[in-house]
Amino acid sequence: MTPEVSASLLLDLYELTMADAYRREGIADRRATFSLFVRSLPPEWGYLVAAGLQDCLSWLQGLHFTASDLVAIDQFKIFHPDFLDWLSELRFTGSVRAVPEGSIVFAGEPLLEVEGPIAEAQLAETYLLNQMTLQTTLATEAARCRHAAQGRAVMDFALRRVPGTDAGMKLARCCRLVGLDGTSNVAGAARYGVAPSGTMAHSFVQAHADETEAFRAYARAFKEATVLLVDTYDTPLGIERAIQVAGEMRAQGIELHGVRLDSGDLGPLSSLARRRLDEAGFPGMTVFVSGGLDEYKIDDLVERQRAPIDGFGVGTSLGAAGGAPTLDSVYKLVSFGDRPVRKTSTGKATWPAAKQVWRRTDWSGDLLALADETPPGDCYRPLLEPVMHSGRPRSRGQGDLAEASALFEREWLALPGPLKRLRTPALHPVQPSAALLHLTATLGSGQPGPGAGEQQSRLRADRTRSASD
Asked: What 3-state class would DSSP assign to 197?
């Protein structure tokens, strides 16, 4: 019988094998620092929205291998019983510094750094990467859709298409974080305080003998909250039938909310719907659209077609982050004992030592510095802050979703417009400090570290290739 296992086993096998090897060598308790960052941004992305920290801290705080976990590991016939005994007593006792959720970050900048016994910090690699990568990707894609809509409502319709219900819940949380207007995910709406959003499916219309009767039935049930789906059969005729039912309900003192389009050429159809609603005396009814939308299609409808659309329902592309379904995120050792270390692999070189990111208050650039460097000046602010100490979250690190959302709004307001562009966004300068450059040079190989110049060059090259393809 397969044992039930806990979330502590959400790790890659090599983390267990390395932990066992560290233990056998007698170095499992030696202090180490790991840095989690994104090597480079997707070609059309100018920024990232940091998300996922709360789940990371909760997992670290609860890290504990249960009896069932140990039985499951023992079934692999890889590890000596001494290692299982050692695992049974393991807890995370390290510390974490991180950028708060809702912060805007760029390539090469640590989203978080873990310091503690190397075996404990190593075991955290996969879970931390999973949560930070997924939620940062989802939050950034949601922010891009919000930007494309230019103040119009954006709703999360992705639960049925997102890869797994857990990811659907994370998406609902990210939508709350970056200020989307609602979600169709009932559990997500209840858990995270997002407005629930939904209309009807085509099946509701098909279940009635007559489209008009379907509209009447729905309007009787939901009154002022009614949004009628008008494209099941003939969209122009569906709009007329919706107007008819809206008139009938107005005679009863009830004003319907709007109509929804889910297929066809949404620009011209939304213009038709808006014109006919206005002509019929329903200027307050909204026009809502869905169906295969992403940030680029929203931008086209809003910016190029000037379509009179009040809101967008975004599904597949939001749940799968459109053209950037994942990020080039990594979790790398940067110090061991009292020794800074770096990786010098071609194309994957890393900066050594624990670090801090200092941002100019005017958003003109960031400085990637050693964590213990003197602050560069009054015109900079630090991004990473202590969120966990000795295995326990600090009050600031435990996070409040409303607080994180408020932070995002401040960051979003300050983020320069050229960095928000959906296509060929500006490049935000991230430069290494003189002390970081000096330390890197002392560690051999002669190769430069990754962030800053190399990251910006790679990103510029990626975008050039994308534009020429």
From this structure: coil
Predicted TM-score (pTM) above 0.85: yes
Q: What is the largest CA-CA distance in the chain?
A: 82
- CATH architecture entry for 144-319: Alpha-Beta Barrel (3.20)
- Return d(Cα 321, Cα 141) in angstroms, integer: 5
Residue keyed to tokens 């910016």: 303
Instruction: List, for residues 283-314, the tens digit of each pLDDT value.
Output: 999 999 999 999 999 999 999 999 999 999 99
Dihedral of CA 50/51/56/57: which sign?
positive
At 378, list the tokens.
Answer: 């009054």
- Convert the pLDDT of each residue in 166-202 to its tens digit: 999 999 999 999 999 999 999 999 999 999 998 899 9
Helix (H) or strand (E) holding 430: strand 430-432
Residue type, 130: N
Domain boundaries, the chain: 7-138+330-468, 144-319
Domain 7-138+330-468 bears CATH identifier 3.20.140.10: yes
d(CA 290, CA 234): 17
Q: How far apart are CA 224 and CA 326, in angstroms?
A: 40
